[in-house]
């Protein structure tokens, strides 16, 4: 099944045309009794123009905090970006004022969340919410923005766009609300679309439609996508490149095909076993025993050690570095240290 899914994968475009560059990002939360949760702990990656990068991992791995850090939406206190840089088209977002950053949000960076009801305002019509974004960022007059809003709803596959403009979020199905969110997120032709579990709450058919729609939007507008998901099936169908997160750190990074066909990190291997496939139809889906350690209780060694079948004494003493094992493939695991490379 994994191979079947990969037959339809988009081709990998490794462009030098970098859009987003995150370097040494650390986002910490101060807890009671002086504890510190290291939710994102020294994360570095980049996204090229028109590229879809999937950020995957279980809940608690730090993927959503990474995306909220990029949007500068970390609640402070208790959270704070304590170190690192986030550059969009060469501009460090961490040095911008709140006013400058609010112009970037919704304009250069669009965002789609798992549950559109958390970002759609229940007391305003869809039309009002769509035109607000267009009037704010593109300085359109109300009438012009309304016409553009109808056009955007049609682009995202809403046939009765004029009617939907006058409706309230609760009058729409989950799939329709997610289409509206995509229309709002794409309304200002953002350079980067951050989609945080955009299809998790939807049934499988609607999920496929929404993923296809996002990929169509990417082609149409040349947008880069940071797709946050725990679903490796979704990754196989949509991503060009994959970043696997565990315990606030990236543990494996590779082009999607290489990640599926030449998986290195024991955590990624375990994650891939959670994908349902036809052969496993009647069997129980494998899940990974144990859970991600809380971000204020990370061990000094490898953060996956407690759940790893290949744990060695060194793993408990020393957190491995993220090392390049070929030009596009990086792994954080002692099995791939110089002396131990190729043990799996
Ligand atoms: Fe497992 Fe050790 Fe690799 Fe961690 S470093 S993933 S414990 S083998």
What does this structure look like?
It is a single chain. By secondary structure, the chain is α/β, with parallel strands linked by helices. It contains twelve helices and twelve strands. It has helices at 2-7, 63-70, 98-104, 126-138, 142-155, 161-165, 174-186, 204-221, 232-238, 256-261, 266-272, 313-317, and strands spanning 18-30, 36-48, 52-56, 79-88, 91-92, 109-112, 192-196, 224-229, 241-246, 249-255, 323-326, 329-331. The strands form two sheets. The chain has an eight-stranded mixed β-sheet, with helices on both faces. It has a four-stranded antiparallel β-sheet with strand order 2-1-4-5, with helices on one face. Helix 4 packs across helix 5 (142-155), helix 5 crosses helix 7 (174-186) and helix 7 packs parallel to helix 8 (204-221). The radius of gyration is 21 Å and the shape is globular. The site of iron/sulfur cluster (SF4) has 13 residues, from loops.
Brief rundown of the structure:
The strands form two sheets. This protein has an eight-stranded mixed beta sheet, with helices on both faces. It has a four-stranded antiparallel beta sheet with strand order 2-1-4-5, covered by helices on one side.
């Amino acid at each position: 099944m994994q191979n079947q899914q990969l037959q339809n994968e988009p081709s990998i475009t490794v462009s030098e045309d970098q859009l987003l560059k995150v370097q040494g990002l650390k986002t910490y939360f101060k807890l009671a009794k002086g504890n510190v949760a290291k939710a994102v702990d020294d994360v570095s990656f980049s996204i090229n123009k028109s590229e879809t990068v999937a950020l995957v991992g279980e809940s608690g791995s730090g993927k959503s905090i990474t995306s909220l850090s990029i949007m500068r939406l970390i609640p402070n206190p208790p959270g704070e970006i304590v170190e690192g840089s986030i550059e969009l088209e060469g501009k460090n977002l961490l040095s911008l004022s709140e006013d400058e950053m609010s112009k970037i949000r919704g304009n250069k960076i669009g965002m789609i969340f798992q549950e559109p009801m958390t970002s759609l305002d229940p007391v305003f019509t869809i039309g009002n919410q769509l035109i607000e974004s267009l009037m704010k960022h593109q300085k359109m007059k109300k009438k012009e923005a309304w016409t553009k809003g109808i056009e955007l709803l049609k682009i995202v596959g809403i046939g009765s766009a004029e009617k939907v403009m006058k409706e309230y979020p609760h009058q729409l199905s989950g799939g329709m609300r997610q289409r509206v969110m995509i229309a709002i997120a794409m309304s200002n032709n953002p350079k980067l679309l951050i989609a945080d579990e955009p299809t998790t709450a939807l049934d499988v058919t609607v999920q496929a439609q929404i993923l296809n729609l996002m990929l169509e939007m990417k082609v149409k507008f040349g947008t880069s996508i940071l797709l946050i998901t725990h679903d490796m099936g979704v990754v196989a169908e949509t991503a060009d490149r994959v970043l696997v997160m565990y315990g606030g750190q990236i543990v494996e990074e590779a082009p999607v095909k290489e990640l599926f066909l030449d998986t290195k990190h024991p955590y990624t291997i375990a994650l891939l076993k959670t994908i349902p496939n036809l052969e496993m139809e009647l069997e129980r889906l494998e899940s990974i025993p144990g859970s991600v350690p809380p971000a204020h209780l990370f061990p000094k060694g490898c953060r996956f050690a407690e759940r790893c079948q290949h744990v060695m004494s060194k793993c408990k003493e020393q957190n491995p570095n993220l090392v390049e094992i070929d030009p596009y493939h990086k792994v954080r695991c002692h099995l791939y240290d110089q002396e131990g490379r190729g043990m799996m």
